[in-house]
Specification:
The complex is a heterodimer of chains A (389) and B (437). Chain A has 389 residues and is mostly helical. Helices cover 47% and strands 5% of the residues of chain A. In chain A, helix 2 (43-51) packs across helix 4 and helix 15 (245-253) packs antiparallel against helix 16 (258-275). Chain B is mostly beta strands and 437 residues long. Chain B has helices at residues 2-20, 52-68, 93-98, 144-160, and strands at 25-29, 37-40, 45-46, 72-74, 103-112, 115-124, 129-130, 135-140, 169-176, 183-190, 197-198, 206-211, 217-222, 229-234, 239-242, 249-255, 261-268, 271-278, 285-286, 294-299, 305-310, 317-322, 328-330, 337-343, 349-356, 359-366, 373-374, 381-386, 392-398, 406-412, 419-421, 426-432. Chain B has 4 helices and 32 strands. In chain B, helix 2 crosses helix 4. Classes of the chains: A mainly alpha (389), B mainly beta (437).
Chain lengths: 389, 437
């Protein structure tokens, strides 16, 4: 029959159409499988981040795996650091000094104009937690590699001081490169440099254990506290002997109710203790809360515009706080200073006062329920670590 | 027993509660930030219409002086929310706080009969109060830049606590011509590069000029007689005379702090020693007597000691001795060679040039030689000179190569703010004057 080929042709046609429509001849979709987020940056990007130079950033090449650029990174850094060496030679070593810069631009939002575009672009590619893990552990051992190149800068210093060194190195390292270049770059970098220093210093201050123990131990031996707290312990011993004879009396009265008597005595003593302070003070501020206040004030304490003499003066400043966490600017007063002349002390007081006011504009983050604890604050500003020697 | 123990425990607990509570909260701030202080300098107001350009230029000079210290940052004028329209009207502090201006300088300028009067006020914005009293300065119209420097000096000193230094001048050697046929002449300018004047012609090589303590005379070395000799030049009249030294080549002169004597190097028979002589002439006193090259002397601010460079130990090092001569003790200790020591006007530091492993550095150290810090490094840095307040150092930096040329640079003693001092031609050997009166 003639319909045989027709049927065959129709059947083939249906088959072919279904194959086309059904996707057999389409390229296979890639298989979906679990991938871990990996930060991909090119060697140039990494060098740009670590050296904070206003370099042009080429498109990140996807094939550069994270591990590979790291050994390369110090090399692009090294030639760029060679023209830099105009910096105080308290640098321990430049790569560790530069390294803390790398995490800083990424999480912070500095005013640094030129490095910013690179950084904000890269934060989309970089995952935030990766940046510290990338930079902090790995370049530290690698810093030894460029050390021979950097030795001429490090060697002449007979009195290196490692703890403050990274801080001080921070400021000149980004600034130094532009000093060879045009004024435009030099103009920008003074803004960039202080930002780097700011974040660096704050970051170091935030490392656990740097200041917390000292603050919590403080309240004990001051004459001021003994005046206030002296009445408090005195009432304590008074209730103490009172419950003491009571259980004895009750004990002689009824030996069977010993536990009751103890409980009563304990309750009496506790209520006695808690009732003696005038207002309910609540639990003391935790060290985390104190650290939060300390760090908040630190960010506004600018010692950059102080004379070298004022940097030798430690000032103690008292301030009364409102319930909203804002300082009462009229109450800020200098209650003590050590070292330096009166002029230098007033300079140092000015800087401390500005710090308290500026960072307190929106109120400090202090728990309202513990308001009685922080209604009056005494802050000691000690510029020992900020000093120009 | 146990009940007594429990009672004691609760009592102790209660007592500690009492001690922990009460008294102000105490915290210690040990770290801060180092950043330039934002300062707003709106245009000074002209009190008369013809003072308008002068007022604007004056405020620009004040702003540039402050910014170039590296300790201040000017808030751009197009960011101002409110404008200063009257010198006497009260300040809207909230507007200045909003743009984060921590200091505000307002001023007014009046000009009449060739005399200019500047009034200014400085405000601490976040404390919402003036910082110090308003002041007024008067000068001839030709010296209007000095007025601006004086305003900037007052603002700078009040905020930082450092001494003033903007109202000063720098004398240096202006160089021109190719490297193998350099022409050198003495020049003087304001510290910021303005008002350049030449003090000598280029007929003879001149080196290392030095100011007197009052800033009115300059000592320098010249080859005009064929060998290096010391001359004294009066800045106002540009008149010069040779110092009456005899016996050989003399160079590297410096005034004593009272301006009456000169200490210098005299080279005789292959040996170079330090001598001191009254400026008006007289018998020179020999200060060193070693078979080595002793040069580059510099007095301490109180005039009791002299720091100098000597190679008596085999390499150039820095020594300190009494101003009357005698035993010298070495204070430089690091690797490399040390030279051109200069005592800070504050008396606490000595600046020097250091040469190590093929590189030159400008550095400072304490007068006992400790806490040496290098502030710069390059192909060729040398000849530091202190600002009047002992905070900034100016020096010569020469770039390498056939087309290399020297220029003047300044750096803060913290090592920050390294910047070039603008000069029209190549320049070397700067000497910073004391604060002008």
């Amino acid at each position: 029959m003639a319909s045989g080929p027709a049927i065959s042709g129709a059947g083939h046609g249906v088959l072919l159409v279904s194959l086309f429509v059904g996707g057999l001849f389409q390229p296979a979709q890639p298989e979906v499988f679990d991938t871990a987020d990996v930060a991909l940056i090119s060697a140039e990007d990494f060098a740009a981040l670590t050296s904070a130079l206003p370099q042009s950033v080429p498109d990140p090449e996807p094939e550069t795996v994270t591990d590979v650029p790291l050994p390369e990174a110090p090399e692009p850094d090294a030639p760029s650091t060679v023209p830099e060496p105009e910096e105080p030679l308290e640098t321990a070593e430049p790569p560790p000094a530069e390294v803390p810069e790398a995490p800083d631009p990424a999480p912070e939002v500095p005013d640094a104009p030129v490095p910013d575009p690179e950084v904000t672009e890269d934060t989309q590619i970089l995952t935030q937690p990766d940046t510290p893990t990338l930079d902090t552990p790995v370049p530290a051992p690698l810093s030894e590699t460029p050390a021979p190149l950097d030795a001429p800068r490090v060697a002449p210093t007979p009195v290196p001081e490692t703890p403050p060194a990274p801080e001080i190195a921070e400021t000149p390292t980004p600034r130094v490169v532009p000093e060879e270049d045009s004024a435009a770059v030099a103009e920008e970098t003074p803004q960039a440099a202080p930002e780097e220093a700011t974040t660096e210093i704050v970051t170091e201050a935030e490392t656990p254990g740097s200041g917390a123990p000292a603050t919590s131990l403080r309240p004990v031996a001051r004459p001021g506290t003994t005046k206030v707290s002296a009445p408090a312990p005195e009432p304590e011993p008074d209730p103490e002997p009172d419950p003491a004879p009571e259980p004895e009396a009750t004990e002689t009265a009824s030996p069977d109710t010993d536990t009751d008597a103890i409980n009563n005595a304990v309750n009496d003593a506790l209520t006695g203790a808690l009732e003696t302070p005038a207002a309910p003070l609540g639990p003391p501020l935790s060290s985390a809360e104190k650290d939060g206040l300390r760090v908040a004030v630190q960010q506004c304490w600018n010692t950059g515009a102080l004379s070298t003499e004022a940097l030798n003066v430690t000032v103690v400043v008292a301030v009364a706080m409102g319930r909203d966490g804002k300082p009462d600017t009229g109450s800020i007063r200098l209650i003590g200073s050590t070292g330096g002349s009166d002029t230098a002390a007033s300079q140092a007081f000015g800087a401390a006062r500005r710090a308290i006011i500026r960072c307190g504009l929106n109120g400090y983050n202090l728990p309202v329920e513990k308001y009685e604890q922080w209604r009056e604050i005494e802050m000691t500003f000690n510029p020992e670590r900020m000093r120009i020697k | 027993m146990t009940r007594l123990f429990a009672i004691l425990l609760t009592a102790i607990f209660a007592a500690t509660q009492g001690v922990a509570q009460g008294g102000p909260l105490r915290i210690e701030i040990t770290e801060g930030v180092i950043e330039p202080l934002p300062v707003a300098v709106p245009d000074f107001l002209p009190e008369t219409p013809e003072a308008a350009t002068l007022a604007a230029e004056l405020s620009r000079v004040v702003a540039v002086d402050l910014t170039n210290t590296g300790l201040f940052r000017e808030v751009p004028r197009n960011a101002f929310i409110s404008q200063i329209t009257s010198f006497a009207s009260p300040i809207q502090y909230s507007d200045w706080k909003a743009i984060n201006a921590q200091a505000l300088v307002t001023g007014s300028v009046a000009s009449s009969g060739g005399r200019v009067t500047v009034k200014f006020r400085l405000f601490d914005v976040f404390s919402e109060a003036p910082l110090g009293e308003g002041l007024q300065f008067v000068a001839t119209e030709a010296s209007w830049r000095r007025l601006a420097h004086k305003v900037a000096d007052t603002v700078y000193s009040r905020i930082t606590g450092e001494g003033a230094y903007f109202d000063s001048r720098v004398v240096f050697v202006s160089e021109s011509g190719p490297k193998n046929a350099r022409l050198k002449r003495l020049a003087i300018m304001d510290y910021d590069g303005a008002n350049l004047q030449f003090l000598t012609d280029s007929s003879a090589i001149v080196l290392a000029p030095r100011f007197s303590p009052t800033g009115d005379r300059v000592l320098y070395t010249s080859y005009e007689s064929g060998q290096p000799e010391i001359y004294v030049l009066d800045v106002a009249t540009v008149g010069k005379r040779k110092l009456p030294t005899t016996g050989g080549m003399t160079f590297s002169p410096r005034f004593s702090p009272n301006g009456q004597s000169v200490v210098y190097s005299l080279s005789q028979g292959g040996n170079t020693d330090l001598y001191k002589m009254p400026l008006v002439g007289g018998t020179p006193v020999r200060l060193t007597a070693s078979a080595s090259i002793d040069t580059a002397p510099s007095f301490s601010p109180d005039g009791s000691q002299i720091v100098f460079e000597s190679d008596r130990s085999g390499t150039q090092q820095i020594y300190i001795m009494s101003a009357n001569g005698g035993d010298a003790r070495r204070i430089s200790n690091g690797a490399g060679r040390y030279g051109t020591p200069v005592w800070s006007p504050r008396g606490d530091l000595i600046a020097f040039t250091k040469q190590n492993k093929g590189r030159f550095h400008i550095g400072v150290m304490r007068i006992d030689g400790t806490e040496e810090r290098l502030l710069t490094a390059s192909f060729l840095d040398e000849g530091p000179s202190w600002s009047p307040n002992g905070r900034v150092i100016m020096f010569t930096r020469e770039t390498q190569g056939a087309s290399g040329a020297p220029g003047l640079y300044s750096v803060d003693i913290s090592g920050r703010n390294l910047r070039r001092v603008a000069t029209d031609s190549a320049a070397s050997d700067p000497a910073w004057s004391p604060l002008l009166r």
